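Record format v2
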Amino acid sequence: MDRTDAESLDELDPLAGWRDRFVATEGEPIYMDGNSLGRLPAAVAGAVADGVRQWGSRLVGGWDEWVDLPARVGDRVGRLIGAAAGQVLVCDSTTVNLYKLASAALGCQEGRRVIVGSARDFPTDRYVLQGLAGRAGHTVRAVDLGPGPEGAEQAVLDAIDGDTALVCLSHVDFRDGLRLDGRRITARAHEAGALVLWDLAHSAGAVPVELDEWGADLAVGCTYKYLNAGPGSPAFLYVRRDLQDRLAQPIWGWFGQADQFRMGPAYEAAAGVTSYLTGTPGVLGLIAVDAAVAVIEEVGVAALWEKAQRLTALLVERADARLGPLGARVTTPRDPDRRGAHVSVAHPQAWVWCRVLIDQARVIGDFRPPDVIRLGPAPLYTRYVDCFDAVEAMAEVFEAGLPASPPPGRVT
Amino acid sequence: MDRTDAESLDELDPLAGWRDRFVATEGEPIYMDGNSLGRLPAAVAGAVADGVRQWGSRLVGGWDEWVDLPARVGDRVGRLIGAAAGQVLVCDSTTVNLYKLASAALGCQEGRRVIVGSARDFPTDRYVLQGLAGRAGHTVRAVDLGPGPEGAEQAVLDAIDGDTALVCLSHVDFRDGLRLDGRRITARAHEAGALVLWDLAHSAGAVPVELDEWGADLAVGCTYKYLNAGPGSPAFLYVRRDLQDRLAQPIWGWFGQADQFRMGPAYEAAAGVTSYLTGTPGVLGLIAVDAAVAVIEEVGVAALWEKAQRLTALLVERADARLGPLGARVTTPRDPDRRGAHVSVAHPQAWVWCRVLIDQARVIGDFRPPDVIRLGPAPLYTRYVDCFDAVEAMAEVFEAGLPASPPPGRVT
């Protein structure tokens, strides 16, 4: 394929118009990091400004509406991940939500001592589980998801046994984009009497998720990647309806209390998913999530996923053609049924390569240790030509010769 | 005193000009709830708008600066509460921070089984302690702070003994405004080998706090009251420098990890206060706190406290004169050395009275169960005439006859 093929795909793209609903960026880089921090939808900028005005004019009376935001915006997120109303909240960070839900799960699995996770999962997921395991004598069985997608999934299935209390995995792996079969792993876990907690950080808003259909128990995810709600926007959590009153999360705060404003003497968990709230929720962040998710809802996950698959296919094809000869290797599964919405390329000089790419070619991907450059097109605003040009730029800066050390700055 | 006396105080008020630095409110109510949700400083509205623009234009590259915000804004909050740099972070909610710090404290107090708290503390404080106590066999010794300020403080001192692991108290009581002697209670706790965790929610930004001088161990607080950072803005936490590496908080996230972006296999707590971070911090919230605290810093806590004392004195005087005859009773200590920056008035009909006051007289205070109306003037923007008029309005709506049930709506 050549660039005109990519241009043709853009001309036929039913989502092409959505790009204009995002605020223009300085210097117009080719942004391939929507899986780390999504771009700013104009609607979100407007909603945050309105939220600030609302605070200014309604003052404490604004809480009449704000108090329901975690549940109301949660229901909205729920519609993107196949969760019926009353099971999702937007609150806290992904880390804190992982802690609350994993802790709640372990607390009701008396006698089972193993947590099954991934050895290459996102750091926070691994660390939260390590911390919880150390507290009550659990062991983390960290599965190696390295040996190809089929092998990886089988390794997970094999790791689940009668001693497994909890299976906690990312639906889409942050580094290589491996996508696990949510339904199959959930079923296997239940067969063994284990609970399952899915991290949907790299799925929500781009990759189909059907929590209710899978029979999933618990889930968490962030809203600042494909959902475009801004840096560090509040995260979400899902607790399946019939588990809500059976499990108990450990952080007892006034927003999780039954009849909150009675302020009674003893903690009494609110009924339903509300008990998974903790403290006062961040209103501006919630307003941003609300507006951001409204955009995704309007487009629909099906259309986004359709385009995401075409974008990743193009990236894989171009990476093989242009970067393979330079010694780079696509680490994302080639089978579209086994990957999420981003594509990763491994090379021993990935760190320097990625940094030069950003600084000299204004192509913004990101590096993940030890040796991967991630290219995360966002179906809502990334064009096919962006993917084509990103790989071309990668080839060009490499062919021009990489320096021994990267340009200064940049922490992420 | 009459209204002209209040007007004279306003004329002489060195802080009078600061009122104009706040965004005007709809219908210009008399706002006496700055101790619940502070008003919107124009500087904060501007900073949030800039933050949104920064996200839009710098995209993921913005993290080069944002990553340090919890510590940088934390140091700024620290200057308001007598904490040298490197001991305060802005992150999570007050509830989550209470949980992290109380849990960390209990974890290093092997063999001590008692948590000393207040039976009338803010719900979240009580609930967090109850949850933690239930987990590892601790008992909460809930002190009754009812019997007058002297008695209350003595009751706290008497409750601390050799079995006390942690003393966790609000510096200023949310309901009645009782202010405890931070230095004295900290000293007594240390004498007994206990650690102390102060909740500064009703102190920070209006009441002098000297954590380093007191020798305090731990503290938390919120930023949406006197600090004016907006509804649900991120909270702060303080861990005294020499305790930072000795204590361990339970929520192990990637922002608390040493060498975060190496993403190593095992959790290794970062050195210093950083290990008390958890997940990705909310950037817009942090930017709001930064700008809001800058305003307080410019004015200075000493000047704010000076005015706060005069405002509460005026309120107590007026409440005695006008509301006493109506059967209401000031429950805030009359001794200025024993109270914070708000004044509470108890009456059996407080709930209906408060609601009528808001709806008919546009005087916004708040109700706290079972029978209290709180009047929380904020020294930065509340005028002496506002305090005078608020009490007059209270008397007038009462004298006009309260309905049997309150107007509809309003949850807080």
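The radius of gyration of chain B is 22 Å.
Chain B has two domains: 3-31+300-399, 45-298.
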